[in-house]
Amino acid sequence: MRNIRVIARLDVKGPDVINTIQLEGLRKVGSPNKLAKNYYNQGADELLIIDQVASLYQRNHLIELIKVFTKEIFIPITVGGGIKSVDDARLLLRSGADKVAINTAAVSDPNLINQLAKEFGKQCVVISIPCKMVENKRWEVCTNGGRDKTGLDVFEWAKKCVDLGVGEILITSINKEYLRQGQLSAHTLGRGYTWLDAGTSESLLEASQFISTIQNRQGFIVACLEEIAFNSGWITINYLIEIYNSLGENEYKASLARLIKSIETAG
Q1: DSSP-based three-state secondary structure for 76
Q2: H/E stretch holding 201
Q3: Contacts of 149 (CB under 8 A, 6+ apart)
Q4: Given this model, what pLDDT does residue 35 score?
Q5: What pLDDT is attached to residue 1?
Q6: Cβ neighbours, 10 Å, residue 116
């Protein structure tokens, strides 16, 4: 039995998957359908789709996307972005989503969490919490794709969301530069809830050991550069095979072999 679940995240804007810098500076990186299928074929346990601008522009373009996904992808799918009501969530769940993630609407009306949990069950409700470190090393909740501050403390808000019936918590740090400055820390939300940011030499060592455990148990390389380059469309399968052939016999080469086989099997 797998002890570690791999959840692939796709941030989308309209028809494109995007990468961001601190949730801004959007850059297109590929097709949602292609990347989602790649993650599925490579063994992801779940898929997380977040529309980064849905709340900002008061829209929801995810329904048709989810309908396409569920024809070829058979793992749980969580969808977030622009969900403002029970009816919005119902449309996405009926379209094939397994869970919905809410942020901006929940901050505006926390009772929405309770309404969703009562209507669909807490297992369907995810609270998404983009956050920034502000003065006195306090973490503040943000909304509208991380653009707007709320004044809410992340940990107090997370606890409140659990009390209201949320099933899962998704925390995203916007100002990742604190990782490089060594200013992040570990916080306990209470029994069963912990958020760890690796910022010191000791915690970085723990993180590296955690990554090593994942790689040894699951049989793939975390943050494999060749895999990232291929999935982003920067290199071809033929070039990936050339890289594979140039390597000596080691676990990294074996991992690339499994990657190449999965790509060729997917066609």
Answers
A1: coil
A2: helix 201-218
A3: 132, 134, 140, 142
A4: 85
A5: 31
A6: 29
Q: Roughly how many angstroms between the first and final C-alpha of the chain, as a whole number?
A: 28
Tokens of 146: 């991380």
- Tell me the two tokens of residue 88: 């919005």
Backbone angles phi, psi at 132, to 5 degrees: -130, 145
DSSP tag of 85 = S
How far is Cα 59 from Cα 56, in angstroms, rounded to an integer? Answer: 8
Whether the CB-CB separation of 60 and 33 falls below 8 Å is answered with: no
Quick check: 245 and 260 in contact, CB under 8 A?
A: no
Helical spans, DSSP H, in 96-200: 104-108, 111-120, 154-164, 177-181
Averages of pLDDT over runs of 10 residues in the chain (267 residues) are 68 76 62 85 86 60 83 90 92 93 94 95 91 80 82 90 90 59 48 43 52 61 73 84 87 84 80
Q: Where are the domains of the chain?
A: 219-267
pLDDT at position 226, please? Answer: 81
Q: Which two three-digit tokens encode residue 254?
A: 């074996």
pLDDT of residue 68: 86
What is the model's pLDDT at position 121? 93
Sequence length of the chain is: 267
The reported pLDDT for the residue numbered 209 is 60
* Cβ neighbours for 108, distance < 8 A, ≥ 6 positions apart: 143
| Long-range contacts, stretch 82-86, CB < 8 angstroms, 24+ apart | 82/51, 82/54, 82/55, 82/58, 84/112, 85/112, 86/112, 86/115, 86/116, 86/119
CA atoms within 13 A on the CB side of 183: 15
Which pLDDT score, from 0 to 100, does residue 89 have?
Answer: 94
